[in-house]
Model the fold of this input.
Amino acid sequence: MAIQLSESTESLMQKVKGKVLRSGDQAYDEARRIWNAMIDRRPAAIVQCADAEDVPNAIRFARDNGLEISIRGGGHNIAGYSICDKGVMIDFSRMKNVRVDPKTRRAYVEPGATLHDFDQAVQNHGLATPVGINSTTGIAGLTLGGGFGWLTRQYGMTIDNLISADLVTADLRKIRASEETNQDLFWAIRGGGGNFGVVTQFEFKLHQLGPEILAGLIVFPFHQAKQVLLNYRHFVESAPLELNVWAVLRKAPPLPFLPVDVHGREVAILAVFYSGDMREGENLIRPLRYFGDPLGEHIGPQPYVQWEQAFDPLLTPGARNYWKSHNFTQLADGALDTMVAYAATMPSPQCEIFVGLIAGAANRVPVNATAYSGRDARFVMNVHGRWDNRSQDEECISWSREFFKAVAPYASAGGYVNFMTEDESERVSAAYGPNYSRLLKIKEQYDPENIFHLNQNINLGATQETRQRR
Ligand SMILES: Cc1cc2nc3c(=O)[nH]c(=O)nc-3n(C[C@H](O)[C@H](O)[C@H](O)COP(=O)(O)OP(=O)(O)OC[C@H]3O[C@@H](n4cnc5c(N)ncnc54)[C@H](O)[C@@H]3O)c2cc1C
Done:
């Protein structure tokens, strides 16, 4: 059924410099496709902004017509909040510019940039800042939820490197948030997601890196998984911050350095990253090979930008995905046993359980310094339920949920909002822990009507309802 609009999309088209797409337009279906193929929604209008000036027009149009607003950066969010049914999708896929000032070591980044757009631009100057491990992820959603990756041990979360952000607020003001101006808002957007306004530019500080780093994979047989994880736990306690190692349990992809008969069988993988002196790195990673009897390895010097793309082939868009995640301050024996037990029953070749190491600089930031509150988390564990056919939905979702529940007793409080699915809204307040009440106050100040609610929502209404029920 056609939606009745008080302002027509034709008049919106005249106001914006970018494009407005509607159902039936040639590019509409491509524009509404996001990373997780489980999400299939049809916005009334997709506003592909050409610059920051288009954003207030899109918000005004949505407000005047009583339509929901979704905001798309890289379209990777597992919950699929970047796209809405019958609402207005503010789409930044045409705003990907990354400007680097090598003298001040600053990057000015438009919100449609992917991690690859960002890494490539800053690496042209031998610079980097911590971002995620899959290069097609959007910088916008990743940053607003916290952001971590290979460099987090050394330089903290992505938000710990954010200097300022330019936003358009719910009442259409264009403002800057930084340590100097609108400090409350700056605190809130460092972890509080897209709850407070639409970011039109991020400013990051940068660090010298590479361009070559030492990185790669070591693959062990699955029957040694527990032993590998125990050794891993011990090893990372004293590993320098320049060294990061993530542990992954999954069925082996057809990697050319693995014997063919291993392909498709469960394995334990160590993903290794070292950003210091190469020779020193070789010495540091040598003990990893003795965690078990490796089936194969592929480690060597390579450009940082190449390593940032290494996992892209396993994380292509178009598959069905259901994720669950926990934070850990330590990896108890019971947690490792549970991981190994569930990894032995993975229902699809694309499922995996990974343990990302973030211990280091991020833990030194006080919990109340930013909205992101997982400052005690030393590991982030994610279970990727991932499969191709709808017929497997129930089996793969159940497996992910059951594992998540079984390992929960060993997890620390909180959680990472960027890994939460749509059915986890009840976890949001716990994810922010002691910071949630301040987030509610700032939400009331900047978006009292909750027009930015398609996100892991800081929901004033839910809090008021709870108060009334009491
Ligand atoms: C394959 C894969 C790998 C990942 N790896 C990592 C990782 O290594 N480290 C990590 O920290 N996370 C990782 N993530 C999680 C990732 O950080 C989140 O999915 C994040 O939301 C992606 O951002 P996006 O811009 O691509 O998403 P989108 O879906 O486009 O946006 C997500 C949400 O962010 C908000 N938003 C986006 N743009 C704006 C804006 N301009 N202004 C205001 N709000 C906005 C909106 O609420 C939107 O719904 C990964 C995700 C995937 C799918």
User: Anything to note?
Assistant: The two ends are 41 Å apart (CA to CA). Residues 35, 71-78, 81-82, 92, 111, 132-134, 137-138, 140-142, 144-145, 147-149, 193-194, 198-199, 315, 418, 454-455 surround flavin-adenine dinucleotide (CB under 6 Å). Residues 35 and 317 are 4 Å apart (CA to CA). The longest strand covers residues 212-221.
